Amino acid sequence: MVRHDKGRKVPDVNPLRSLILAAARNGSIRRVVATAPVSRDVVRRFVAGETTSDAVAVTRRLVEDGLTVTLDYLGEDTTDSAQAEHTVQSYLELLDRLHAEGLADRAEVSVKLSAVGQMLDEDLALENARRICRAAEAAGTTVTLDMEDHTTTDSTLRILGELRKTWPWVGAVIQSYLHRTLDDAERLAAEGSRVRLCKGAYKEPESVAYPEMTEVDKSYVRCANALLAGDGYPMFATHDPRLVRIIAERAEAHGRKPGSFEHQMLYGIRPEEQLRLAQQGHTVRVYVPYGEEWYGYLMRRMAERPANTTFFLRALLTRS
Ligand SMILES: Cc1cc2nc3c(=O)[nH]c(=O)nc-3n(C[C@H](O)[C@H](O)[C@H](O)COP(=O)(O)OP(=O)(O)OC[C@H]3O[C@@H](n4cnc5c(N)ncnc54)[C@H](O)[C@@H]3O)c2cc1C
């Protein structure tokens, strides 16, 4: 089996993948990783911490640096309604704190529907997402629904549609690696519609996704053009310097001023670029994960796609 990466053919084996997944399941390795000073620093580079207070402290620091934030309480793929309820409660507590500490106008939340019950029952996920949206409205901020693997795309967009009937500001996410996404981008580019465009993080079959990175990048530009040409509010989630440059050119060509779209990057990845864009007058939103499930988050992200492993390893070596 051969996989294409950046247009080159490479064997479809990530030698680290099975090792990482085995490590993720091993309790003693988890304890070592969680407590060793070096790995603790590494984890802290990408994850705000385990508690609401950790998340709020990192948010405050980023806001003081001129950035905006979206917070993700870690814990996806829940097949347990008590765990889904715990996730909802964590978001409600966080939203309260953001409001109380005067950060809600600069910090919103990102929610994975699988963490609030989507795999158990779509109606449960919708009801739980409604509770989070109600709390976000009371706090004076917004919610974005993260997009997960392609088997959940239709369900997530259905829930988005329901939520937007009451809260039109609920943000959508689309992934340029999926063949379907240009259609979704055109449909979602309506007035007031907040849409995050990313490449996509899950390992997807060729029947639904472009196998070559060059095709994923071209699709990203096509979708970016569709969003910029529309009346919505595009949110460009990428660390890719070439795409950041292209977005600047295309935004200008579409007459988009800074503030009518935003850049988004992950916490700990290209922090100097985040500041540079913000200093140029752009809105830059940092995606900040936090919570006790950080170990699974880092390990799964690395194992899902070979590119993710190098993605995090590269971030450890460079700040710009
Ligand atoms: C804010 C945000 C939200 C996201 N939400 C979702 C979501 O809801 N669903 C989903 O499937 N995915 C999501 N993602 C992940 C996304 O789909 C990609 O997997 C991830 O961002 C990697 O793609 P990339 O565009 O950054 O560039 P890549 O294709 O990984 O890299 C392209 C180039 O960018 C530069 N670069 C990349 N990483 C680094 C680094 N660590 N350090 C220095 N330079 C680097 C390098 O020059 C590299 O060649 C999100 C990403 C972000 C930033």
UniProtKB/TrEMBL annotation:
InterPro entries: FAD-linked_oxidoreductase-like, PRODH_bac_arc, Proline_DH_dom, Proline_oxidase. It is an enzyme of class 1 (oxidoreductase). The keyword Oxidoreductase applies. It comes from Actinokineospora auranticolor. Residues 59-311 form the Proline dehydrogenase domain. It catalyses: L-proline + a quinone = (S)-1-pyrroline-5-carboxylate + a quinol + H(+). Its EC number is 1.5.5.2. One of its GO terms (molecular function) is nucleotide binding. This is proline dehydrogenase. Pathway: Amino-acid degradation; L-proline degradation into L-glutamate; L-glutamate from L-proline: step 1/2. Substrate binds at residues 112, 300-301. Its cofactor is FAD. Keywords: FAD, Flavoprotein, Nucleotide-binding, Oxidoreductase, Proline metabolism. One of its GO terms (biological process) is L-proline catabolic process to L-glutamate. Pfam families: Pro_dh. Binds 1 FAD per subunit. FAD binds at residues 147, 175, 199-201, 238-239. SUPFAM superfamilies: FAD-linked oxidoreductase.
